[in-house]
Amino acid sequence: MKEKIYLSSPHMSDEGFELQYIHRAFDTNWIAPLGENVNEFEREVASLIGSKAAAALSSGTAAIHLALMAAGVGEGDIVFCPSLTFSATVNPVIYQNAIPVFIDSDYETWNMSPVALEKAFEKYIKLGKKPKAVIVVHLYGFSADMDRIIDICRRYDVPLIEDAAESLGTTYKGKYTGTFGDYGVFSFNGNKIITTSGGGMLVSNNEERIEKTRFWATQSRDKARHYQHSELGFNYRMSNIVAGIGRGQLKVLNQRIQRKKDIFEYYKQELGNLDGVQMMPEQDWNKPNYWLSCITLSGYVRPLDVILTLEKENIESRPVWKPMHMQPFFEKYDYIGSDAAEKLFENGICLPSDTKMTDGDLERVCKVIKELWR
Ligand SMILES: *Cc1c(COP(=O)(O)O)cnc(C)c1O
């Protein structure tokens, strides 16, 4: 069997930065709870992206959950979400007993369509059901059309949550994704651009709200000698060991982005001219982190042909996210738009984008794919 090529796997620094921070935690016995690595990891992420405050959490999903709570989303509230995303964007809406309304994508960004978003507002305002929050996602590290989305949210005076789980390091018009919304969310899950083995971060310029989410994330313990609770709590904080991995990974973020970009460029050069192949579109306002290199196919070769052919060669690829409004669990919720999300799902593939791939590996992937066009 040929050596496995992954879609996107953990890639620790060559220098061993991660272990240095972990050793520091061991030396001071700050294994848990919290500690220097957590505080510094929060400070470093906030300072990198230009956000006033950050809370390190156990996952990106936990960060979305707390962002919804911080935005005041509760039972029966409407939340507008993109349909084309990973389920973790939407699950926390259900944790809060709120109601997701799914919004279509556009072909220019694959992300939330401002046109469909405007339509959704018109419909729900007319019904007297103004949404409590909008969640926007920057899919595969490519930013959404933020100016237009922000303009709509401001006009209707609704808080914006940015699910930037896939887009740490991506900038839109020179500003980091995650800093446009009232709240921004990052994930450090194993396959993301940098990983802590599992973890997340909630960022905001509202320091008081971040302080409040830290309180919720540590079981909502009131300031009292005895254990006293006036609110529902969660166990959502990041450990000091995990944060050490994050601090080490942050040092190689730019290196990872550069390699991801090179991978995208290589695919563009090798596959971009094949009949029916389209790269995920790049916009001039967008400086993506290129987390995953994605293509769509409009010709005779279908995505499943590519995925299965790669699989036989021990190469991992996968379909683009299946839209939420097509999911058995979520299909009962409203969907606004046309069929862009569905078409992107039908025609899209995420190609291997592992930064550990050598140039030889990339060549191998493209050779296998190109065989299908012969
Ligand atoms: C990975 C991901 C999440 C969830 O992050 P976890 O850290 O795995 O909980 C949320 N939204 C999107 C778009 C993601 O890709």
UniProtKB/TrEMBL annotation:
CDD domains: AHBA_syn. Keywords: Aminotransferase, Pyridoxal phosphate, Transferase. The keyword Transferase applies. One of its GO terms (molecular function) is transaminase activity. The keyword Lipid metabolism does not apply. Pfam families: DegT_DnrJ_EryC1. InterPro entries: DegT/StrS_aminotransferase, PyrdxlP-dep_Trfase, PyrdxlP-dep_Trfase_major, PyrdxlP-dep_Trfase_small. Belongs to the DegT/DnrJ/EryC1 family. This is Pyridoxal phosphate-dependent aminotransferase EpsN.
